[in-house]
Amino acid sequence: MILAQADLRLSPNFIDYVLVVFYFVLVLGIGVLARRSVASSLDFLLSGRSLPAWVTGLAFISANLGAIELIGMIANGVQYGVPTLHYYWIGAVPAMVFLGIVMMPFYYGSKARSVPDFLAKRFNRTTQRVQGVLFAVASVLIAGVNLYALGLILEALLGWPLGLAIPVAALVVLSYTFLGGLSAAIYNEVLQFFVIVALLIPLTVAGLARVGGWASLTRQVAALPPGPEQLSSWPGTTLTEIVNPFLSVLGIVFGLGFVLSFGYWTTNFAEVQRALSAKNMSAARRTPIIAAFPKAIIPLFIIVPGMIAGVLIPQLIRLKQTGASSVEGITPNNALSLLMGEVLPNGILGVALAGLIASFMAGMAANVSSLNTVFTYDLWQDWLRPGRDDRYYLQVGRAVTVIGCVLAIGTAFIAGSFGNIMDYIQALFSFFNAPLFAIFILGLFWKRMTGTAGWTGLVAGALSAIIIDSLVRSGVIDVSSQAGSFIGASAAFIVGCAVAVVVSMFTAPKPDAELVGLTWSLTDKDARAGTEPGAHVSWWESPNILGAIVLALVVVLYIIFA
Amino acid sequence: MRAHEPHHEDLPDHSATEEAPSAASQLFDLRTVIAILFIFYGVCLTIMGLFFTTRIDIAKAGGININLWSGIIMILVAAGFFLWARTRPLAPPPSAVDDDRPPMHH
Question: Is B84 a member of any domain?
Fold first, then answer.
């Protein structure tokens, strides 16, 4: 019998490094090859709107499968077990289907180049600028967080000093995004998706074999605190930290499943951008729905490794038994790397390492590429320096790539000294999604909503989220931080809607002619579907059918893991 | 099919950007790159699994020769992508005089 060690340092050998290097040779090669397809700013920033649905779909999910997400969710798997699945199932799939079926026709059909651009068309330029600035700042900060976390991993696993790891990683991302723009970023995201799967599936299979199979795993998990609840997804009270089961279910369904989830998936431009680069309306609509399939299945290969680590790694076992937050300096965040070192031999370890490093870099690349588009189009062309020819904006796009990466290096080092602040900032920006979603939905279904209501609703909702967050952190509102974020997002949504309604009563809306294609009531059904009336559509080309299938899949999965 | 373009009076003119020449249709076939990645990985891992795996490695993974199995599956995946790229090639770029590209299938 093999006893688990708990040395954080991995021991990759020559072959592992060869596998990692080969991956990055391909990544840079993609950047070089993609350069040939860039002749305009649209090519650089939106792939010329030419990509097929399977590519945009996998890029969509991959942009969301960043390493911070992987590490964090595996840590949740260690601590909470099966309820963590809520983040993927109810907490993502319905919103993704909604984005594809309901909202994409308006995003794509309006030929908006970004989320702020859509806001400009539906509301006014002020709304575009408010959202543009917020998004640009958030992108740089979050890119820096990704970079910093990558540096920590490289330091812990391979012994690279932070001062070396961070700039090198930034340079790799900079190289391929500078050359090939969004196409390079998207192609690399698809590649990254496959490497991540190549990391997760062997890890799960080997780990399960190591602990003696599924039945043995469930027995061992149930024997450790917090007990058998770790094996059933409802009511998820340990996850929500809401003791009352009814309120816990409500929190999950409404707080997570609706406000937080819809707020993120329907408005986050780093995601939506992947769909906007699709080659036609049908591909754009299917993008988030295609992405929903792996989103539903992959968590099985994320949560199970977490559960395995929780019963295999001695420090994590002791952590769960005693309820401590760390044992010998090891926290649940170390679970992924510990499990990798524990069950994977050299060879597959190299593949796993490539997948892990790649997922950090792709997270940064997604942020830089979406920052690029918003800054170049919404802030520069539509506000600060309008009216130049396209070549100028293409060069601006390239310049922003460089500056964005340099700024990310800066924020990465700042994140080092203020670790908690970065957490705080990330949480904060997630609150800004809720009011954005509020004004979107209201604006979509209520054509009377005015331009001024757009940005005032946005600002009011964001402020209320900040206020609630402070009240929760300082303990004035006495709930867990999870429940606090549900409440904050809900409040932001409600306040945003309320303020928008009131302001609309006192300001003038745009005439109907300007709102065609931007609101539900003024857009005819075929324009929304993007099909010729009466045309035959195969089942895999129909967003509605695909959406129904993936929702049914989630229901079945919930029944299995209830 | 496009949605009707609404008329906006207060918004800037994007026509220079929208009408600029696009080379996007010349983007290469990603499926080939994916196949190359997995063929390389698959062969390396299969060799590792056959000749360089110790009993300790197998015990760590619960009795499974994970290198060998992963390697074989990756080779199959690579074959799948090669086949897909062959049987449904990308449409050739509209204006280019492109020599021996196979005809468009869908």
Answer: yes
Q: What's the number of CA atoms in the CB half-sphere (13 Å) around residue A561? A: 24
A55, A450, B11, B17 from B23: Cα distances, Å: 18, 39, 27, 14
Does any CB of chain A come closer than 8 Å to the CB of residue B6? Answer: yes
Rounded distance between C-alpha atoms, residue B106 and residue B103, angstroms: 9
Instruction: Output the pLDDT for position A418.
Output: 63
Q: If contacts are CB pairs under 8 Å, which of residues 363-382 in chain A contact chain B?
A: 377, 381-382
Alpha carbons A229 and A221: distance in angstroms, whole number: 10
Q: Which of B22, B54, B58 is the mutation pick for testing A, counting most A CBs within 10 A? A: B22
- In Å, how far is B87's CA from the nearest CA of chain A? 16
Does residue B17 lie within any of the structural domains? Answer: no
Gap between the Cα atoms of A103 and A324, Å rounded:
45
Question: Chain A residue with minimal CA distance to B34?
Answer: A191
Under the banding of pLDDT at 50, 70 and 90, the label for residue A166 is confident
Q: Write the residue in B1, B14, B71 that is nearest to A526 by C-beta.
A: B1
Q: Do A183 and B37 touch (CB under 8 A)?
A: no
- List of chain B residues whose C-beta atoms are within 8 Å of the C-beta of residue A386: 12
Reported as a single tens digit per residue, the pLDDT across A183-206 is: 899 999 999 999 999 999 999 999
pLDDT digits (tens, 9 = 90+) for A74-90: 988 898 888 888 888 88
Task: Tally the domains of chain B.
Answer: 1
ipTM of the shown complex: 0.85
Nearest to A268 by CA among A30, A507, A87, A433: A433
**Of A135, A141, A166, whose CA–CA distance to A152 is shortest?**
A166
In a domain, B21, yes or no: no
Binding-face residues of A in 385-414 toward B, CB within 8 A = 386-391, 393
Taken in order of first residue, the domains within chain A and their CATH numbers are: 14-34+45-417 (1.20.1730.10), 420-523 (no CATH)
Beta-ladder partners of A327: A330
The secondary structure of B17-81 as a DSSP string is HHHS---GGG---HHHHHHHHHHHHHHHHHHHHHHS--HHHHHHTTT--HHHHHHHHHHHHHHHH
For residue B83, give its domain range: 35-90
